[in-house]
Design a protein that fits this description.
With 150 residues, the protein is mainly alpha-helical. The protein contains 7 helices and no strands.
C-alpha cells in the first residue's frame, strides 16, 4: 500500500466519523413525490385548459407559461426555496425549476441595480443551459437538413 492511499483512507475514515449519515431513500422519495406533484399540477392545468377549449400548441404553451409563472411567483415569495430544500432534484427537474434558476439570482442581486444586478445576474445559472440548448438545437437542425438532401 502506498503512503498516499494510506492517507486517503485515513482521511475518508475521519470524515465519515463526523459526517451525518445520508438518507438516500428518503431524499429520493421526496424528490419523486414533489417532482411528480409538480408534473401532476401541470397535467391538471392541461386538462382544465383543454376542457376550456384550448388545444395543440396553444394548450402546451399556456400550460408552460402557467408553470413558469407559478415557479417564479413562489420563488419571489421565498416558498420555492423551502420546497427545494425538502425535494432536492424533484423541484429542479420540471420547468418550474428552470423558472426558479432564473428568478433566484435576479432577486438576490436586485440591490446592485437593474442593469448590473438583476439583468446581468438573471442568467447566471440558466445561461449555460440556454446556450447549450440553442447550440444543440441548431446543430441538430443543420444535421437534419443535410440528411434530408440525401
Amino acid at each position: 500500500m502506498t503512503e498516499q492511499s494510506h492517507y486517503n483512507r485515513n482521511y475518508v475514515e475521519y470524515v465519515n466519523r463526523f459526517a451525518p449519515p445520508s438518507k438516500h431513500f428518503r431524499t429520493c422519495g421526496h424528490a419523486f413525490l414533489v417532482g411528480g406533484g409538480i408534473c401532476c399540477l401541470g397535467q391538471f392545468f392541461r386538462f382544465m385548459l383543454s376542457f376550456a377549449g384550448l388545444s395543440g400548441d396553444v394548450l402546451a404553451g399556456t400550460v408552460s407559461v402557467l408553470l413558469i409563472f407559478l415557479g417564479t411567483f413562489l420563488t419571489g415569495l421565498g416558498v420555492y426555496d423551502r420546497i427545494g430544500r425538502v425535494a432536492g432534484a424533484g423541484s429542479i427537474v420540471p420547468i418550474t425549476g428552470f423558472a426558479n434558476s432564473v428568478a433566484s439570482p435576479a432577486i438576490e442581486f436586485k440591490t446592485e441595480g437593474f442593469v448590473y444586478g438583476m439583468a446581468a445576474k438573471m442568467f447566471l445559472v440558466a445561461g449555460p443551459i440556454l446556450v447549450f440548448g440553442v447550440t444543440a438545437g441548431t446543430a441538430v437542425g443543420v444535421l437534419y437538413r443535410l440528411l434530408s438532401y440525401l
